[in-house]
Design brief:
Helix content: 40-55%
Mean pLDDT: 95
Distance between the termini: 27 Å
Low-confidence stretches: none
Radius of gyration: 23 Å
Order of helices and strands: EEEHEHHHEEEEEEHEHEEEHHEHHHH
Number of strands: 15
Number of helices: 12
Length: 405
């Protein structure tokens, strides 16, 4: 049985979806004011592996991914480029989907844009105002965390540190891994955001980033999600904000599991424009790496552990995949067109894969153990049907990994 590390409670738990053999998964998607880099894709890849492995294990998966196309950064970037927010974000969304497919990731069933869910955001905010959890101030609308029991429970926030003096945070996002001890914004009035406005029951304005994910969840899902996923940075502020909003208006828990992926660093440093170390997929392809090798590098480390990119590490990872593929090609050649038959070897390959993947999706030991099994195969004594049986198992496994063939 698959066991995952649930951020909520900080413990390993057997994966039990809200519906029997049906899993509903929601993931924080890209902020499309700019192009996604390989660090972003590392997070989306662990989610892709989760979906694929659940399907491999017999689950039917329904997945949604939020697309943040309205926020402070998008408004500023569009202004800087002298274009509209829609033109800017449309271009980056198209690029994002193109690169998802390039890296052999499944395109989610639902990819709602925040701009498509403004009405849902308005209705959520209205309910919060009615419950006196949200209030208007200076043309904006804010959420008061002190009005919600258990606020910050996902992170494990110490509410004793909460200031007694009223503080309000009006930006969509704030830099750094830190908490804002105060009320967070739900709605930007038009005096602040006159470049992207909607005329609504709340007046002219736009929903903040904090309420957008809840609006997109409610648009496509009902009841408790099986898993809510994102990068580790979402554990500060963002996911607890979404959780508090949704549970304030719904009688059920938001999700059974909360999963968070660690960051990708480059030569020991966080990627940033100021350091000039941001890497995109086409930059690695220009260095001679295939899309499959990029995918393999990004997943060949546990998703909850920080991964460091270096040219040396990338080359070592790519060579390991090439060696594995060469071994598989020799077995496939031996198999020819024979009818597949199970053997101790094919059973060992499958058992190695499943046992490690069931342990919090441990791709690296799963891959390494399979490779060790295949290295010991004696091609001379291996029968053609048994060779074909190995290839059949590997093709099934490849529906999860998407790098073997």
């Amino acid at each position: 049985m698959l066991r995952l590390f649930n951020t909520f409670g900080r413990k390993f738990e057997p994966f039990k979806p809200a519906g029997d053999k049906r899993a509903a998964i929601f993931t924080c998607g890209p902020s499309v004011y700019q192009r996604a880099h390989i660090g972003n894709f590392r997070t989306f890849l662990f989610e892709d592996i989760l979906v694929r492995y659940l399907e491999y294990s017999g689950f039917t998966v329904e997945r949604g991914m939020a697309v943040t196309d309205i926020e402070d950064k998008a408004v500023k970037e569009a202004e800087k480029r002298r274009t509209s927010v829609k033109e800017l974000t449309d271009r980056n969304i198209a690029q994002f989907i193109k690169e998802l497919k390039l890296l052999n990731m499944k395109v989610p069933h639902y990819m709602p844009r925040a701009s498509e869910c403004v009405d849902a955001s308005v209705q959520i905010i209205r309910k919060l105002i009615e419950k006196k959890i949200a209030y208007s101030h200076g043309g904006n609308i804010y959420f008061d965390p002190l009005k919600v029991r258990g606020f910050g429970k996902l992170f494990g926030l110490d509410m004793a540190k909460w200031p007694k003096k009223k503080r309000r945070f009006h930006k969509d996002t704030y830099p750094g891994i830190q908490w804002n001890y105060g009320d967070f914004i739900l709605w930007h009035g038009c005096e602040i955001s006159d470049k992207a406005c909607w005329n609504t029951e709340l007046g002219e304005g736009r929903p903040s980033w904090n309420v957008q994910d809840p609006s997109m969840v409610l648009r496509h899902f009902r009841g408790t999600l099986s898993a809510f996923c994102g990068g580790i940075d979402n554990l500060y502020r963002h996911h607890d904000y979404s959780l508090a909003i949704l549970e304030a208006i719904n009688p059920c828990p938001v999700s059974r599991f909360w999963l968070h992926g660690a960051h990708l660093f480059v030569d020991g440093q966080k990627m940033s424009k100021s350091k000039g170390n941001i890497l995109y997929t086409d930059m690695l392809i220009k260095k001679g790496y295939s899309a499959g090798e990029i995918r393999f590098f990004l997943m060949y480390s546990h998703y909850r552990k920080r991964l460091n990119y270096s040219d040396k590490a990338m080359e070592a990872s790519a060579q390991r995949l090439r060696d594995f593929r060469d071994c598989v090609k020799m077995i496939a050649k031996k198999a020819g067109s024979a009818r597949p038959e199970e053997s101790q070897i094919s059973d060992s390959v499958k058992a190695a894969f499943v046992s490690h993947m069931d342990n919090d999706m441990s791709v690296k030991p799963a891959f390494d153990t399979m490779q060790n099994v295949l290295k010991k195969v004696d091609l001379l004594s291996l029968s053609e049907p048994h060779a074909a049986g190995i290839i059949r198992i590997l093709r099934e496994i490849n529906e999860v990994l998407k790098v073997i063939f």
